């Protein structure tokens, strides 16, 4: 594998830091640290650039909080200036690793994502008779820093950039282990960490039908015994090379016709259903956004963005969409009763229409317009 050097200059270039600032600024809110950075933007970027070039930059302390949707996770929030550095690094490394990653790795990659992974899995379900789905136990908490840096060094030879990555990696509560959930660099490097496993499965073991989204792995075959042998090979590789283990209660071998639960969807060879718990969660999120808007905690622009993001999570087959729309119509009726502006309803309706673009459902669009617009 050809190694790449002279990257540190690209990371610390002012134009790259400015672009990284704009990426980090998205969705950050107006906290005191963000407002101060924005107000003194040029001096802050120049100071950050000088610290990086002089190698005096040190990451700040994380702020931790927990979420419980759908399960409890501890999220680490880095200081805003650290997030700018994270984006600056990932902007430079992404084009390099896009040439390294296999095609069927879908997490935190441009042009990929959950919906592409779901459609790819459905395609393999049509082609194969069996599938094996497995998951890595406490993946982010057990990533070994030394192994990760060795993996990065196989592609990157710029020592200054490697030292910067090392400083960011070591800024964790547990020495030598773990990636904080919430960092952009954590997501990117977590993908890099499992890249050797991807190539082991695709190149050495010769598995053609395989999809990975972060630590969720799905392989497809016409032989159930081949999949059982593959699981043993994956478990051995993870244990020996990456110091990881598979979840014993999260491995499923089943027929393709029975359906696959993957990334919040129930996928069948010719249909995709939204899992009921995800539909209920989306409705709950919608009610929370409406309450926040009514209390003045969300402005109109952010409210529209929230609605589009929530409905976009419900991208599935036409029947599942219609079931969700009937429930969501109750929320739209509440809006209308409170004299909500027409722009909100337009945003919601056009977002729903856009979801059905892939389903060739012009008659559903007309039905939706007839039901909810007039």
Automatic annotation (TrEMBL):
The keyword Lyase does not apply. Residues 46-267 form the Reverse transcriptase domain. GO terms for molecular function: RNA-directed DNA polymerase activity. Keywords: Nucleotidyltransferase, RNA-directed DNA polymerase, Transferase. InterPro entries: DNA/RNA_pol_sf (IPR043502), GrpII_Intron_Splice-Mob/Def (IPR051083), RT_dom (IPR000477). It comes from the Bacteria. Pfam families: RVT_1. SUPFAM superfamilies: DNA/RNA polymerases. PANTHER family: NUCLEAR INTRON MATURASE 1, MITOCHONDRIAL-RELATED (PTHR34047), PROTEIN YKFC (PTHR34047:SF8). This is RNA-directed DNA polymerase. It comes from Vecturithrix granuli.
């Amino acid at each position: 594998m050809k190694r790449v050097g002279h990257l540190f200059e690209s990371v610390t270039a002012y134009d790259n830091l400015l672009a990284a600032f704009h990426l980090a600024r998205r969705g950050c809110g107006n906290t005191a640290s963000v407002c101060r950075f924005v107000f003194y933007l040029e001096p802050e970027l120049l100071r950050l650039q000088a610290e990086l070039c002089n190698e005096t930059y040190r990451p700040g302390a994380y702020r931790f909080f927990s979420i419980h949707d759908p399960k409890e996770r501890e999220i680490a929030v880095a200081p805003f200036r650290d997030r700018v550095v994270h984006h600056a690094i990932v902007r430079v490394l992404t084009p390099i690793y896009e040439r390294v990653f296999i095609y069927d790795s879908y997490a935190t990659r441009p042009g990929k994502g959950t919906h592409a992974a779901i459609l790819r899995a459905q395609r393999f379900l049509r082609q194969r008779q069996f599938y094996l789905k497995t998951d890595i136990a406490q993946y982010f908490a057990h990533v070994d820093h030394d192994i990760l840096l060795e993996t990065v060094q196989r592609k990157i030879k710029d020592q200054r950039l490697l030292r910067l990555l090392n400083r960011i990696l070591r800024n964790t509560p547990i020495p030598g282990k773990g990636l904080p959930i919430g960092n952009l660099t954590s997501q990117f490097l977590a993908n890099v960490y499992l890249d050797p496993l991807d190539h082991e499965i695709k190149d050495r073991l010769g598995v053609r039908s395989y999809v990975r989204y972060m630590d969720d792995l799905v392989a497809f075959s016409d032989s159930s015994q081949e999949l059982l042998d593959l699981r043993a090979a994956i478990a051995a590789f993870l244990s020996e090379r990456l110091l990881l283990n598979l979840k014993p209660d999260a491995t499923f071998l089943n027929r393709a016709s029975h359906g696959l639960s993957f990334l919040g969807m129930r996928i069948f060879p010719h249909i995709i259903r939204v899992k009921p718990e995800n539909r209920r969660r989306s409705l709950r999120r919608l009610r929370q956004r409406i309450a926040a808007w009514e209390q003045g905690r969300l402005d109109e622009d952010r409210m529209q963005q929230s609605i589009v993001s929530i409905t976009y999570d419900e991208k599935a087959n036409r029947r599942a969409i219609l079931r969700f729309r009937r429930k969501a119509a109750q929320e739209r009726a509440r809006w209308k009763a409170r004299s909500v502006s027409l722009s909100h309803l337009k945003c919601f309706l056009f977002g729903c229409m856009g979801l059905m673009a892939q389903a060739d459902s012009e008659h559903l669009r007309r039905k939706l317009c007839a039901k909810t617009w007039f």
